[in-house]
């Protein structure tokens, strides 16, 4: 196997394991109230402008009917609301409700606690965690650029305090 193929194989395996570890780190869904799709959609909507179903489908690279089902369930549960296009367009846009943001933050706190347990148990320093985060952000942004997608991110301080 060529060196590049070996690296790609190793990377694919490690990303697969990372996704598995992340889900496991969140622990049992005890206390968590959001479906995975609602969690991801609210994460996208919380930091950006309201989006139409078509824009959400493009962002997540799924069919509009899939997004429509997910958003409809979120509407029924009071997690998002439909608003007129602020720019006067015909399509309705969606934004999170206070309840949606509250439940997202509650579930996110459980997820962060799981990540904290992993980081502390592995003995990673704040600096090493920050380096990993920087590389992961760069990798995700490169993918977004290749796919012509953007994922809004909350602004981070230029020099965050060390978290040792």
Proportion of residues in helical segments: 55-70%
What pattern of helices and strands is seen along the backbone? HHHHEEHH
By DSSP (H or I, 4+ residues per run), the number of helices equals: 6
The chain-level structural class is: mainly alpha
What is the level-2 CATH architecture name of the domain at 35-123? Orthogonal Bundle
CATH-assigned homologous superfamily of the domain at 35-123: Winged helix-like DNA-binding domain superfamily/Winged helix DNA-binding domain
The chain-level mean pLDDT equals: 84
Distance between the termini: 40 Å
Shape: globular
CATH topology of the domain at 35-123: Arc Repressor Mutant, subunit A
Largest sheet: 2 strands, antiparallel
Task: Please report which band the strand proportion falls in: under 5%, 5-15%, 15-25%, 25-35%, 35-45% or over 45%.
Answer: under 5%
- Looking across the biggest beta sheet, what order are the strands in? 1-2
Radius of gyration, CA atoms, in whole angstroms: 18 Å
Compute the number of strand runs: 2
Oligomeric form: single chain
CATH class of the domain at 35-123: Mainly Alpha
Structure in words:
- The protein is mainly alpha-helical.
- It has a domain of 89 residues: Winged helix-like DNA-binding domain superfamily/Winged helix DNA-binding domain (Arc Repressor Mutant, subunit A).
- Helix content is 62%, strand content 5%.
- The chain is built from six helices and two strands, in the order ααααββαα.
- A two-stranded antiparallel sheet has the order 1-2.
- The C terminus is likely disordered.
Task: Tag the structure with descriptive keywords.
single chain, 164 residues, mainly alpha, Arc Repressor Mutant, subunit A, two-stranded antiparallel ribbon, 2 strands, disordered C terminus
């Amino acid at each position: 196997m060529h060196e590049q193929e070996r690296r790609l194989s190793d990377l694919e395996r490690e990303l697969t394991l990372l996704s598995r570890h992340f889900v496991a780190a969140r622990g049992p869904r005890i206390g968590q109230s959001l479906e995975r799709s609602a969690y991801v959609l609210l994460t996208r909507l919380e930091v950006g402008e309201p989006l139409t179903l078509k824009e959400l489908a493009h962002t997540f690279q799924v069919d509009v009917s899939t997004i429509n089902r997910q958003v409809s369930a979120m509407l029924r549960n009071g997690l998002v609301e439909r608003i007129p296009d602020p720019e006067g367009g015909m399509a309705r846009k969606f934004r999170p409700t206070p309840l949606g943001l509250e439940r997202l933050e509650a579930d996110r706190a459980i997820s962060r606690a799981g990540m904290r347990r992993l980081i502390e148990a592995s003995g990673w320093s704040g600096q090493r965690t920050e380096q990993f985060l920087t590389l992961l952000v760069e990798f995700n942004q490169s993918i977004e650029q290749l796919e012509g997608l953007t994922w809004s991110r909350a602004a981070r301080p230029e020099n965050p305090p060390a978290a040792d």
